[in-house]
Design brief:
This protein is α+β, with helices and mostly antiparallel strands. The chain is built from eight helices and eleven strands. The radius of gyration is 18 Å and the shape is globular.
């Protein structure tokens, strides 16, 4: 979907990703996801913003080394019976635990907490999975959270309210975000006060690059209202 390019700077390999067609939000969403994960202590790929050929792009280091490989859930599903229910999620956690992955449930829950906060519509089976040792084939860990660009989709910018579109994904099911967050066993383990000031930081980030994106003040305002509402809504689930 997105324009992508690999670059090497100071010996480090980075992936650059632009927006979709004329849309500019994807790079900002990736950085917002990093900001949330950093504050909440979730394992994640760190995204920053850069300018490439007069475009704002997200920039992240490759999370694979010469000794590791990323195996997607899509690739693993041959070992999993398909149910089309939350049992697919539970079976996957059991599979992770059977391979010695520590805190498998918590790490999966963290991903869905992020998806709830950002209304990520695109958690398909190719953008999460496990890291495996290429020499021994030992499962090392779940992959850090990455690929969060298709989020914060506002369908209409009505002056009285923010009208939203989209649903999330839980394995083979398309579900409301309220249904997806229900898989989290204990939200009280998350200190949501660590998100204080996040909306203001995101507002500053969007305005900082406004001279390139031409994003209107109105749209930025609505996006920040949406983000604030998601945080407040999550607090009510605690």
């Amino acid at each position: 979907m997105l324009k992508k390019a690999w670059i090497i700077e100071d010996g480090v390999r980075y992936l650059l990703k632009g927006g979709y067609k004329n849309e500019v939000m994807q790079p900002f969403n990736e950085v917002l996801a990093s900001m949330i994960c950093e504050r909440l202590g979730f394992s994640h790929v760190t995204y920053t913003l850069d300018i490439y050929k007069d475009m704002v792009v997200s920039k992240c280091p490759c999370f694979i080394t010469k000794d590791t490989e990323f195996i997607t859930v899509f690739q693993l599903r041959n070992d999993m019976e398909r149910h089309g229910s939350t049992k697919d999620y539970e079976d996957y956690i059991q599979l992770l635990e059977s391979h010695g992955i520590k805190d498998a449930r918590i790490k999966m829950e963290n991903m869905y907490i992020l998806d709830f906060l950002m209304m990520n519509e695109d958690r398909h089976l190719n953008n999460f999975g496990i890291i495996r040792d290429v020499n021994t084939l030992k499962w090392l860990d779940v992959a850090p959270i990455f690929d969060n660009g298709q989020s914060l989709n506002i369908q209409d910018y009505n002056d009285e309210e923010v009208i939203l579109s989209g649903q999330g994904r839980l394995f083979y099911e398309v579900k409301s975000f309220d249904e997806i967050i229900a898989v989290v066993k204990d939200l009280k383990r998350i200190d949501l006060s660590k998100l204080d000031g996040l909306v203001e930081e995101f507002d500053h980030l969007l305005h900082k690059y406004q001279y390139i994106t031409n994003m209107s003040d109105r749209r930025i305002h609505k996006l920040c209202i949406l983000l604030n509402s998601r945080i407040n809504k999550l607090k009510k689930f605690e």
